[in-house]
Amino acid sequence: MKTFISFPEARDIVLKRLPGPREDQTDLDKALGQTLIRPIVAKDAIPPFDNSAMDGFAVRAQDVPAAGVRLPLAGEIPAGCADAPALAAGACLRIMTGAPLPKGADAVLPVEVAEIHAANQAVTFLQAATPGKHVRPAGQDIRRGDTALEAGKTLAPADLAVLAALGYARVPVAHAPSVSVVTTGNELVAPSEPLRPGAIRNANAPMLAAQIATAGGRVHGHFHARDARTDVRRALEAAREADMMVVSGGVSVGAYDIVKEVLEEMGLAMLFWRVRQRPGKPLAFGLLEDKPVFGLPGNPVSSAICFEAYVRPALARMLGRRQVLPRLEPAVLDKPIAKKEGLHQFVPGRAWRKGSLCAVAAAGPQGSHIVSSLARADGLIHLEESLGEAPAGLSVPFERFVSPRA
Ligand code: AMP
Ligand code: MG
Questions:
Q1: pTM for the model
Q2: How far is the CA of 346 from the centre of ligand 2 (A)?
Q3: DSSP secondary structure, 316-376, as one string
Q4: Which CATH class is domain 24-46+146-174?
């Protein structure tokens, strides 16, 4: 087991030791936000046939070389028409948007540039026709055999349109890893309970469940344990059915911090404990029968930040996402932040535009128990381990939190 390693080394260990993505099939209407596990290669062309881009008249362009030409109207082609008549030379056919272009036609003149003589079934065009004008050729959007969507994409509404257009009623997606949330602590009571002396409410359980959901995981269940071996063991045994376990509290050096010992009794291979970071120094990570287990320090800000730094990228990797690591934006510190050399600091920060720059500053008083600063933050300011100080004007990477609806 490694100990007191750097943040990049710790995150690398996590990402290298995870199980790969597993394939699931989902209904198209449940695919939003899921991760495509295979590329989608078009079996059909989109559009499947040449069709009209306008409500108007299908013509041969050579029949309407100039404005003022009058052609006899030979019929009508509605959208969905399967047996459109061919267009005879020197005639026109009324055509609707999306209707198949009839054989013989090579252009459409919109209804706005046509004068219809209903009585004698003829049309005068106020504009010349050009070949291909207002015609949507087959395959213009997607050609058969094209890769329409790349593997690893998180499916957005427009992707569902592409999948529908290509006939995917079922979609090959990555299995959403199930994740157990285990909270520990004699002092914790549920949010619905009154505070007895010495108690605080369990803030991490709902927060971690929400983080799991926004990271593409599925919460398997929440298990709470008192700081007693048998109770911790009971909770962890129930939790281990999931694909991943996220345990909060009990991983530090206090007399009641027994989570690591109990996990090791259960057969966990501990890969690291303690990282040169603030907050979240006591972070532990290991594998229990190849399933990743995170031991997050219990302070809510530490738990939240360790989730963002390690668990969210881990879920992205297990989902086969293309984007595994968070995107970092260049930003400029607007106010100094107290920095301890030798620790990577994650500071909940607010961000705003200042001229052409992104300015950032601590979102409030810092402390791993000050959850209100975290709630005010737009993201995390990263202050690298080697920095001895963080003065105003310093260029820093900023990691924006994902939207709650992501
Ligand atoms: P621990 O990591 O168990 O030593 O806990 C560190 C601090 O975080 C203590 O002050 C705990 O009371 C607090 N804490 C632990 N778990 C939670 C939780 N689920 N919700 C809120 N605070 C917690
Ligand atoms: Mg505790």
A1: 0.93
A2: 22
A3: HHHTT-S--SPP-EEEEESS-B---TTSEEEEEEEEEEETTEEEEEESSS--TT-HHHHHH
A4: alpha beta
